[in-house]
Structures are given as structure tokens and as C-alpha cells.
Amino acid sequence: MGDVQSFVTMTYYFRCIADNLITALAENDEEYCQLETFRPRCLPGETVIISKAIYGRMSDTGRCLRDEEKLPELTDNPKYMGCFEDVLPLVSARCSGQSDCEIRIPDPEMEKTNPCYRHMAKYLKVIYHCIQGMTL
What we know:
- By secondary structure, the chain is an alpha+beta fold.
- The protein has one domain: Rhamnose-binding lectin domain (RBL) (Jelly Rolls), CATH 2.60.120.740.
- The chain contains 3 helices and 6 strands, in the order H-E-E-E-E-H-E-H-E.
């Protein structure tokens, strides 16, 4: 009887791991522009896990900088476009393991990273997953 109980327990355990991995594969990849708030959306009982977070001016093709006036004389300047900083530790510390969180853009701590010219519009790009029953 002990072997059957162990088998059932292990089967359940591996099924839970598989369910969490399948849930984790459904990633949310989003951009948050100036004056927007990053609020990850998970189902009740799920926890946010941040896997990527960058802040700056990665591209002018996304929705955040699409309508901005172009400055052709700065096109090749790395502090104008293509400037960004990895803010995964900061965003993860605030949100990973939580059922909800909020980060308003521009964020004072992210602004301190200063990846681009000051006073230029920057945005946050975040990839996160929702994991069932893993609240930290």
C-alpha cells in the first residue's frame, strides 16, 4: 500500500509542477508609456513572476514613442534612441512573488538609471508570467 500511496503522491506532485510550467508559458509582454501604470493582471490565486524589465527608449516603432516628433540630427545618437537600462532587479523586487503590484511611469528609481537624455520620454517594457499558488 505504501508504494501505491507514494506513486499517487508523486504523480500529483509532478502534475502540479506541469500545471505551473504550462501557466508560466503564457507570458505577458507589454509596454507602459509615460503617465501609465504597470499593473500585472493575474487570475485569483496566481502570483506575478517578472522575467524581463527594461526602461528607456528601445524603439520608436512601438506605441509609446510613435507620435513623438522625430529629431533626425539625433537618430544615430545612443542617448536618443536604443538607450535603455535593465531594471529587472527593481521591478522584480516590487512585483515578483506578489499577487498584485503597481509601478507608475515615470518611476523615480528607474529615472535614476539615466539611460537616455534627461527629459526625453521613456517607457517600461515588461515580460511577466502568472504562476498558480506560488505566493511568496
